[in-house]
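Hey, can you fold this one?
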Amino acid sequence: MARSASEKQGPLRGLRVIELAHIMAGPVCGLMLGDMGAEVIKVEKIEGGDDTRRSVPPAIEGESAAYMMMNRGKSGIALDLKNPEGVVILRRLLADADVLIENYRAGTMERLGLGYGTLKREFPQLIYCALSGFGRSGPYAERPGFDLVAQGMSGLMSVTGAGPGEAPMKCGAPVTDITAGILAAMGVLAAYTHRLKTGEGQSVDTSLFEAGITLTYWQSAIAMATGMAPGPMGSAHPLNAPYEAFRTADGWITVGAANQTNWLRLLTVLGAEVLVDDPRFARNADRMENRAALAAALAPHFRQDSSEALLTRLEEGGVPAGPVLDVLAMHRDPQALAREMVVEVEHTRIGAVQTLGFPVKFSHTPGRVHGPSPLLGEHSRAILRDAGYADAAIDGFFARGIIRETLA
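Sure. Predicted structure:
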């Protein structure tokens, strides 16, 4: 196989994952496991594959940039699961698999005869990971889910935006999709630990809705304590001040003077010591109560100098601060590069392409991005050979349209 388990590195080397997932949350789970060394076999539908392949523009020489980002390092097979023979092939792949990831609509896997109840009897050691909009139980279990909907229903949109009275705003990044994928990977690893101890597989079930709720820890704490729902605060923090973005002479910077020590350091750096004795800003509780006045008092001091000069002084003064970078500037940032968060892979058809790196560093079993995304069905033949199928049988599957292979 193009990226076999023997070629992979990382703490999950030897783990085999079958990914029946599309768009984002499920693929995020798969790429996290794959970057840690798991062999991830992505199963796509014959016609069109993962819907992210059509999330264009942008495309790089005809390949969806979004698809390539979410599916790097995976092997790919295009398989017709509407054909009973396709389901038989998938079962054969599952016989040697440790994990199944799926994010189909509720009932789809059951209609295919691949629901957890069925697979548990057939493969008792299998870890079955289901991602959905709202989870596999409860009154909303049948609803389709998208990041926008989950951000709205989880409360995230109510606390995101410039301030009260503005239109609801979602986070710029699809945070519930990404967080759900990371939570699912965490759940898979916990289930795998349990299996190592007991030999027993189990189901792992999480959702975009729960991922969004998880991201409201601070705001939920406030609501539970006060009985009042917090609203949007721009870049400010709901519990500490000053902790927000400030306009400089030539741009914006962020400042996290969130405790008393950093507050006093900030005043020294800005030459604003007169505010030390202002009773409105004496303690954090006072600063939060008078946050608008605080921002107004600090603003002129930030507007007097450039972002670069201010950041230099803030760093020398021990005050946490940073520039507001656009995404391209972040890609060029020396710390991002030093931490290998922007890396290059060799795509089968395109050649060298950039992707984001793996965000967790291990001292003994380092994870890494193991390769590019697959072309649709690129490894179909190799995957089936690895599963024990003879070439004659594989040729028959191709002839009957049960599998597909795309070469460069």
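The first helix runs from residue 25 to 35. Let me know if you want another pass with a different chain boundary.
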